Amino acid sequence: MGATKRFIYNQSINEVANIAKVFAHPARVAILKYISEQEGCINNDLVDEIGLSQATISQHLSVIGDAGLLKGRFEGNKKCYCINIERFEEFQILLNSFFIKTKTNCC
Amino acid sequence: MGATKRFIYNQSINEVANIAKVFAHPARVAILKYISEQEGCINNDLVDEIGLSQATISQHLSVIGDAGLLKGRFEGNKKCYCINIERFEEFQILLNSFFIKTKTNCC
DNA sequence: TCGTGATATTGCAATATTACGATGATAAAT
DNA sequence: ATTTATCATCGTAATATTGCAATATCACGA
Q1: CA at A36, C1' at D20: how many angstroms apart?
Q2: Does the CA dihedral B6-B2-B96-A3 come out positive or negative?
Q3: Of the candidates B17, B88, B30, B96, which has an alpha carbon nearest to the alpha carbon of residue A20?
Q4: Can you name the residues that pair with B82 across neighbouring β-strands?
């Protein structure tokens, strides 16, 4: 026991849960917000800005990145992040359609 | 270490994360979906329907309920659940405005 | 009252997540 | 060449979440 039994749910349910999981930690919400507010490139100002260690920020960034929400490229030794808007909108639409459908069917 | 440092984030960021957390487990997504599809009252068909133990379903229901998303009342010994649409819409709006704001500010 | 069915709670084991220091890799600057 | 800055990864400790069996509670019917 202890592990989520993903296999008992259908794909669309797991999809909603996986999307939500990205936003289910305040550090990741803060990171996305901060990146979205910057002009062009940002590097690890995030560490100062948010107040977690560099390793921890990097970990959260990779969770967000694994979900496909980031475009990152190196400029010299600095990494520049940008939100992958197409994917981000996909997330928005998927979540929102879950909300709409649930609301519509409801008693 | 190991615990989320909620206190370093502002209220609106924690709010988004807390909302997302409710939907961040497929069982809870499945429960909400199922409840929304039923006419009027449901009882623990959820156990058969989803395939987790009664204890586990009950736990997930209380997570959803603590977030204010359920209206539940007993009819005899059976509990009837209904989604609290007002709260549910609040969630939808809060999440969606995070998406919109992030998208708008983005590079 | 007793038994039964429905739900909630408790206690615990398994697993996942969060956080950080240390280390490694790479690129610029000295 | 050496140092410095930036970022990723590894190892590990602390904490949280998930899931279930066992138990408790409560409502109903016999």
Answers
A1: 43
A2: negative
A3: B17
A4: B71
Which residues fall within 8 angstroms of residue B76, CB to CB, at 6 or more apart? none
Judged on CB neighbours under 10 Å (0-12, 13-18, 19+), A78 is exposed
The closest of B75, B98, B83 to A99, measured between CA atoms, is B83
Whether residue A43 contacts residue A4, with contact meaning beta carbons closer than 8 Å, is answered with no
Considering any atom of strand D, list protein residues whose CB lies within 7 Å.
Answer: A 1-5, 43-44, 54-55, 58-59, 61-62, 72, 77-79; B 1-4, 21, 24-25, 27, 52-56, 59-60, 63, 74, 76-77
Residues of chain A with pLDDT under 50: none
Q: What is the pTM of this model?
A: 0.93
* Closest C1' nucleotide to B53's CA: D20
- Nucleotide showing the shortest C1' distance to residue B26 CA: D18
- pLDDT tens track for B41-53: 676 789 999 999 9
According to DSSP, the β-strands at B70-75 and B78-83 are antiparallel
Which residue's C-alpha is at the least distance from the C1' of C10? B55
pLDDT at A1: 67
